[in-house]
Design goal:
Pfam families: AAA_33. The protein has a single domain, classed as Rossmann fold. The protein contains eight helices and five strands, in the order βαβααβαβαααβα. The protein has a five-stranded parallel beta sheet with strand order 2-3-1-4-5, sandwiched between helices. Helix 1 packs across helix 8. The relative contact order is 0.23.
Amino acid sequence: MIVWLNGTHGAGKTTTSRLVQQLIPDSRVLDAEKVGETLMDIKPGLPDTDNFQHWDPWRPLVVETARRVLDYTGGTLVMPMTVLVEAYWREISAGLAHHAIPVRHFVLHADHDTLRGRIAGDGIMGPSEFRLQYLEPYAEAARTWLHREAEVIDTTHLTPAQAAAQIAQAVAR
């Protein structure tokens, strides 16, 4: 099984994924961003883009990486990754379904002001224009498709541990 943690930057996906992994037996974290980082190392050859998700190989490589890891390890993969383009989510989820891999898709949501404050106050990454530029695309995805496609966990007033507990409980049901 895959527990996919979606949501925009600053929602707490990375922190929450580590906590979810501790709560779900036989689980491990697979960050799909690492697949994108591998592609970013291929120079020259890939077209310029502001987001590696736009490279056609990224989505099938995420599916294949998850499939191979699950075949090798079994258990549950917790995958923190923002996917705001509906067609990209459809491609990934269809690819996983093709391999009969069940997915529990969660969106970590917080209101705009909370997200902006988290991004500005991030002690590890610091304030990030890159992360801020995704607030409006996230809001648009949430309005148009994303919240219909996932189980929404409103983290506005939750700690990462509380959000992780809600996700682990939902998975256990």
